[in-house]
Amino acid sequence: MNSRHQVVIVGNGEVAAGAAAVIDAADLVIRFNDCRSMGGGGRRTDVVAVCNTGRPARAMLGSAEWRKSPAVAAASEIWSVRDPDKFSELRVSLAISHPELDDFCDDYTDQFTAFCQATGKRHVVIDRAIHEGVDTALADYDPGSYIVPSSGMIVIADVMSRHPDDDIAITGFSHTGWEEHPFAAEKQLVDAYVSLGRLRRLAATNLISASEGD
Questions:
Q1: DSSP state at residue 104
Q2: Most exposed among 23, 54, 185, 192, judged by the fewest C-beta atoms under 10 Å?
């Protein structure tokens, strides 16, 4: 019997064909923000990882549709990916370098805490050490100038830290999007973790083997 837990991190990009059943059979499934991966990417949701600063946070908290969505309703935990103190410090430099992002560091962590208390969920704030560890790891891949790593990269690093002996798979990660995330470097970093066996990409070609065993 396989004693390793199966963890699947499902991004909001294109999910591997036929992955829904494998995702739903996992021990832990993590989705992001508005959980656009629901449906073709299965339905099981244990954790919703949220961007807890700026406009995405404000939009989610202000949306009755988000609060009552199937994924959020099913989740037992909400993870806030941005450490409030880290982003409070970042606000100072961004005011000079990117004045147009004046609300980027607005913190809604307390509001997510209140939401979790009201709905019986656990609220986890990912520690700044994870963010800073990702920055250090990305430096080996010439990330260039960027503001912060993506939420997906932060969650991948955090899950690898929390589950060092478990089987961790990802799908729905295109490594593209907002230009101020270092996506090219993130893809190289993730590929390095895959080559080391610390992580795997859930692809149509490995779904059969991934679903075998208990």
A1: T
A2: 192
